[in-house]
Amino acid sequence: MRTILAAIAFAAAAALASSALAGEEGCTVCHGKEHVDLSKSIHRSADVSCTTCHGGDPSAVESKDAAHAAAKGFRGKITRQAVAESCGGCHSEVQRMRPFGLRTDSLAEYRTSHHGKAVLEKGDSEAATCTDCHGVHDVRRVKDPLSPAARGNVPATCGKCHADAELMKRHKIVTNAPADFAGSVHGIRLARGEPGVPTCADCHDAHAATPPGATEVADVCGHCHGETRDRFRESPHFAASKRGSMQQCVTCHGNHAVKRPGFELFDAKEDESADGRGGTRCLTCHDPAKPEDKGAQTAVALGRGLREAEAALKDAAARVDAVEADGFHVEDERESLDKARRGLVRAVPLTHTVDRARVEAELRHVRSFVQEALNGCDAVVREERDRRIFGSVAGVVLLGVAGVLALRRRAAVKS
Questions:
Q1: Whether the model pTM is above 0.85
Q2: Which of 108, 144, 157, 304 satisfies CB 3.0 to 4.6 Å to 148 for a cystine?
């Protein structure tokens, strides 16, 4: 009985394989390249075939008309306007996507995006659709480094359109974003392969791609910079941003061309070559020559205080290194330096409150830990010095005692 059942199962499997092969061979007769691309796709492992998207009868190899018969549901080449709905036909089904752990709101989000509205509502054939970002027949998992939608490839994928001068000119969009991002602190770290670095999709969203509004920027940046966002909301700048006088985050740091901020942001004049895309400095808006400009006085004080604390920390670290090189144990002193560094890290987001008193209080803690490390170095060096002096004195005393004893012994022998 088992032999019969096994034979039936084998025959059924062979029949299915033959049917699938016939289907593949049928499409491959004319569409060899597409078949090769599909064989590399994640869709291949999910039983997505040519007919899933294009319809038709792949087994009708006798003629093109038979394979492309309307009665067989043949849809032909999918137009750009129909791509999103075609992909969304599967990717909106909860039961179908559940085994793969994929979201089912991609199509709904795309409809709300600038891209989606341009394609679906205006019939714009140049706006991005699913295949522009994920590929056509060779769709790969987004975690596959060869996928155009992989994190490391996202800027280049977006840049295919957004760096195209002629294309962007027709849509009245500037083309500096890809180059700005590549030279930014985010772009440089992403190119190095560092984890957790934002890409275009993290700030603009992948499917609901829309530039963050003036009131949303801090929340977008705040996904990573939560502490900074919260401190900014305590500042007078937050109220100014609500009035529309400035843009949160972007006014000072820029958007795509974000640079790693240094302390010169507080108390140095703007570079003459600066174009503003990388943000502006405090003294661009505030004038330290005006005594009534309290913002300028605060900015200068913050810059000076942070720079002095950093310099003191650097000097103390050099002192600890030198003492350690002389053979002393400096574990306690290094712990003090670590506390000072953490304090300096806390002080930076605290500057977004522009509360001079709070920042200076934190910097006092930094300086106290720096001094603690220096005092510890002085103590271990002094202790070693005292030990050597004591050892030297003790040695002299012992030699003196030994000399006296030797003289007494010699005198006793003579007598």
A1: no
A2: 157
DSSP letter, residue 257: T
Contact 161, 128 (CB under 8 A): yes
Average pLDDT, the chain: 87
Q: Sign (positive/negative) of CA torsion 155, 160, 164, 167? A: negative
DSSP conformation class of 44: G
3-class state of residue 130 by DSSP: helix
Written in H, E and C, the secondary structure of 379-392 is HHHHHHHHHHHHHH
Q: Of 283, 278, 219, 222, whose CA–CA distance to 254 is shortest? A: 278
Residue 78 CA to residue 90 CA, distance in Å, equals 15
Residue with the larger pLDDT of the pair 249 and 16: 249
Overall residue count recorded for the chain in this entry: 415
DSSP single-letter state for residue 373: H
Kindly give the residue spans of alpha helices, DSSP state H, lying in 29-93.
Answer: 32-39, 50-54, 64-67, 80-91
CA nearest to 78, candidates 51, 114, 100: 51
Q: Which residues of 18-48 are buried (b: 16+ CB within 10 A; e: fewer)?
A: eeeeebbebbbeebeebbebbeebbbeeeee
Domain boundaries, the chain: 113-211, 301-386
Distance CA 142, CA 130 (A): 13
Cα(205)–Cα(29) distance, integer angstroms: 40
Phi, psi angle pair for 345, to nearest 5°: -65, -40
Instruction: Give tens-digit pLDDT for 308-361.
Output: 999 999 999 999 999 999 888 899 999 999 999 999 999 999 999 999 999 999
The rounded distance, in Å, linking the Cα atoms of 215 and 247 is: 8
CA gap 162, 173 in Å, rounded = 8
Residue 93 — left, alpha, or beta (φ > 0 → left; ψ -120 to 50 → alpha)?
A: beta
Q: Tell me, what's the pLDDT at 21?
A: 40
Q: List the structure tokens of 95.
A: 């039961």
Tokens describing residue 399: 């030699």
Tell me if 35 sits within 8 A of 27, measured CB to CB: yes
* DSSP characters over 315-370: HHHHHHHHHHHTT---HHHHHHHHHHHHHHHHHHHHGGGT-HHHHHHHHHHHHHHH
User: Does position 367 have pLDDT exceeding 90, yes or no?
Assistant: yes
Q: Convert 211-270 into a string of H (helix), E (strand) and C (coil).
A: CCCCCCHHHHHHCCCHHHHHHHCCCHHHHHHHCCCCCCCHHHHCCCCCCCCCCHHHHCCC
